[in-house]
Design goal:
With 279 residues, the protein is mostly helical. The chain has a single domain, classed as ABC transporter involved in vitamin B12 uptake, BtuC, CATH 1.10.3470.10. The protein has helices spanning 2-5, 8-34, 39-61, 67-89, 94-114, 118-125, 137-156, 158-166, 168-173, 178-200, 205-219, 223-247, 252-278.
């Protein structure tokens, strides 16, 4: 069993979980602070349209098209569209914009997938379900490189991001270009959702990227502890899920998602019961 836990594909999965914890930090954590908690998960679904289009173009034209790059492009574009709608039509239309971008992307996914032979349909479906154990070394390098860009943005513009999340009007009064930072912020959240599709699939992005942040929000006392706890919980859920999936011969991504989801339910129910008991 130890040989399996230390095998090359498991070592790559351990690295991928660490990368996903950074994605959760810059995606799920910031999305909750900004008030658009569902955006990274929905942008991950938008990535499906880009992945399907990329595979189709590669199949139809014979050109060297990177479906992963197309998936990320679609997820970032969907997030920027949502940011534009929110800034020009008001926060109340953000949900409508998210739903519209999702509907278009999923429709494209279904359409282009139907034009592909079965062996390429399976390649497209990998972005829907995903398997962290199947990441190749090159895919892991791509994932880590793109995540590093997102993390560097978060580090260099940390204070500006926090100001915008909590007081955009005050930030604007300070002379900062709130619109520019907001677009960059939404782009980063879209990038996080698109990146995660390669490791766990779009269906599980919410469970692994958003749930740790949602739990951290219930437990943290300030912003720094919230972000730290978000990253820590992602690591715990990821590593525990990987080990249990090997011990019990279960699907790795699904096991990680179930552990994260159960933890969220326990925290929410526990807090509700605690409040009821106290008051």
């Amino acid at each position: 069993m130890l040989d399996v836990l230390l095998s090359p594909f498991m070592l790559r999965a351990y690295v991928a979980v660490f990368v996903l914890s950074l994605i959760a930090l810059g995606g799920g954590g910031i999305a909750i602070l900004r008030g658009v908690a569902y955006l990274p998960a929905e942008s991950a679904h938008a990535a499906l349209g880009g992945a399907a289009l990329g595979v189709f173009l590669e199949y139809a034209t014979g050109l060297d098209v990177n479906p992963y790059a197309m998936a990320i492009l679609f997820s970032v574009a969907a997030s920027l569209i949502v940011a534009y709608a929110g800034r020009h039509a008001g926060p109340e239309v953000v949900g409508i914009a998210i739903a519209g971008a999702l509907a278009i992307s999923v429709s494209m996914y279904a359409f282009f997938r139907s034009l592909l032979p079965s062996w390429l349909q399976a390649k497209v479906d990998g972005y829907l379900l995903g398997d962290i154990l199947l990441l190749s070394p090159m895919e892991l390098i791509e994932l880590a490189f793109m995540t590093a860009i997102s993390v560097l943005f978060l580090i260099f513009f940390y204070h500006e991001i926090i100001y915008i999340c909590f007081d955009p009007e005050g930030t604007n009064a300070m002379g900062l270009n709130v619109a520019l930072y907001d677009y960059l912020l939404f782009g980063m959240m879209g990038l996080a959702g698109g990146l995660a599709t390669k490791a766990v699939g779009s269906l599980l992005v919410f469970a692994l990227v958003m749930v740790p942040a949602a739990i951290a929000r219930e437990l943290a006392l300030d912003v720094r502890s919230f972000l730290t706890l978000t990253m820590t919980l992602t690591l715990i859920f990821g590593y525990v899920g990987l080990v249990l999936s090997v011990l019990w011969n279960l699907a790795s991504s699904g096991t990680i998602a179930i552990i994260a989801s159960l933890a969220y339910i326990v925290i929410i129910v526990g807090k509700k019961m605690g409040k009821k008991y106290l008051f």
